[in-house]
Amino acid sequence: MTIGIMDRVNRLDPADFVALFGALYEHSPWVAARAASLRPFPDPDAMLAAMNQVLDRATDAEKLALVRAHPELARRAGVDPTLTQASAAEQASAGLDRLSPEEYARFNRLNDAYAARFAMPFVICVRLSDKDFILSEMERRVVHTPEQEVRTAIVEIGKIARLRLADALARLEKEAVITLSSHVLDLVSGRPAAGMDITLWSGATRLFSGRTNGDGRCPDLAGIGALAPGAYRLEFGVAAYFRGQGVALSDPPFLDIVPIAFGIAPPVDGKGGHYHVPLLVSPYGFSTYRGS
């Protein structure tokens, strides 16, 4: 996984964060919604820890509702319209969609016994199991107390979420990547503008602050990683730069901070792209364009 993936996750607005990660917990997007406010996450482990923190702080009723949101194993695979795509694939990975009549009957019997005792479905991370292990666990856990079994189910749900998170981040990484660069030309000297301050904003959030190098470029911009489609603003410290070059300016200067507001559109070809936003500037005028 590239470093830029977590940068993208941390910059998602809350609605997009929930849309991407709400399915980590079966029919329970509230976990992701609450975790969104705990960002930034330095890595996937920290993100999962934040979601576990949300579960730890949840009420007993919320935890029970989360457990009850899971499907019964085997019985409803391919039949229940509420079965999520993730759950169906997970059950298939353990062979629960290919049971013999005898195995199917045994699952039904154990499902009934478990539901009668706990009033909730049996939950296990099927991707880390096979059908024989699942059946043995159903028989072993049915003697637990209800409190024990809710705790055990929550632990299993955490294992499911970890695997689903890895899948979601892998999908995100495969999506088109968009990067940004800039180059500033001093029209007074006809040379690259070295030492000009540059700041990148997304709304009121500052994403980057840096300074151009001797070639008038800001290579550290690449360190912010991939950018999501949206509206951005580059601000160039023009007046401070020209003062530093000994250029006489009016007071106040005609151009102080030059903002370039630009948009990054969603990629249409699945290949991502690169946005180059140069600035050609003097104390009294500037121009820009989308470069390559």
UniProtKB/TrEMBL annotation:
<feature type="domain" description="Transthyretin/hydroxyisourate hydrolase">
    <location>
        <begin position="180"/>
        <end position="291"/>
    </location>
</feature>
<dbReference type="InterPro" id="IPR000895">
    <property type="entry name" value="Transthyretin/HIU_hydrolase"/>
</dbReference>
<dbReference type="GO" id="GO:0033971">
    <property type="term" value="F:hydroxyisourate hydrolase activity"/>
</dbReference>
<dbReference type="GO" id="GO:0019628">
    <property type="term" value="P:urate catabolic process"/>
</dbReference>
<dbReference type="InterPro" id="IPR023418">
    <property type="entry name" value="Thyroxine_BS"/>
</dbReference>
<dbReference type="InterPro" id="IPR023419">
    <property type="entry name" value="Transthyretin_CS"/>
</dbReference>
<dbReference type="InterPro" id="IPR036817">
    <property type="entry name" value="Transthyretin/HIU_hydrolase_sf"/>
</dbReference>
<dbReference type="InterPro" id="IPR014306">
    <property type="entry name" value="Hydroxyisourate_hydrolase"/>
</dbReference>
<keyword id="KW-0210">Decarboxylase</keyword>
<dbReference type="Pfam" id="PF09349">
    <property type="entry name" value="OHCU_decarbox"/>
</dbReference>
<protein>
    <submittedName>
        <fullName>2-oxo-4-hydroxy-4-carboxy-5-ureidoimidazoline decarboxylase</fullName>
        <ecNumber>4.1.1.97</ecNumber>
    </submittedName>
</protein>
<dbReference type="GO" id="GO:0006144">
    <property type="term" value="P:purine nucleobase metabolic process"/>
</dbReference>
<feature type="domain" description="Oxo-4-hydroxy-4-carboxy-5-ureidoimidazoline decarboxylase">
    <location>
        <begin position="10"/>
        <end position="166"/>
    </location>
</feature>
<dbReference type="GO" id="GO:0051997">
    <property type="term" value="F:2-oxo-4-hydroxy-4-carboxy-5-ureidoimidazoline decarboxylase activity"/>
</dbReference>
<keyword id="KW-0378">Hydrolase</keyword>
<dbReference type="InterPro" id="IPR036778">
    <property type="entry name" value="OHCU_decarboxylase_sf"/>
</dbReference>
<dbReference type="InterPro" id="IPR023416">
    <property type="entry name" value="Transthyretin/HIU_hydrolase_d"/>
</dbReference>
<dbReference type="InterPro" id="IPR018020">
    <property type="entry name" value="OHCU_decarboxylase"/>
</dbReference>
<keyword id="KW-0456">Lyase</keyword>
<feature type="binding site">
    <location>
        <position position="183"/>
    </location>
    <ligand>
        <name>substrate</name>
    </ligand>
</feature>
<dbReference type="InterPro" id="IPR017580">
    <property type="entry name" value="OHCU_decarboxylase-1"/>
</dbReference>
<dbReference type="Pfam" id="PF00576">
    <property type="entry name" value="Transthyretin"/>
</dbReference>
<dbReference type="GO" id="GO:0000255">
    <property type="term" value="P:allantoin metabolic process"/>
</dbReference>
<keyword id="KW-0659">Purine metabolism</keyword>
<feature type="binding site">
    <location>
        <position position="217"/>
    </location>
    <ligand>
        <name>substrate</name>
    </ligand>
</feature>
<feature type="binding site">
    <location>
        <position position="289"/>
    </location>
    <ligand>
        <name>substrate</name>
    </ligand>
</feature>
<comment type="pathway">
    <text>Purine metabolism; urate degradation; (S)-allantoin from urate: step 3/3.</text>
</comment>
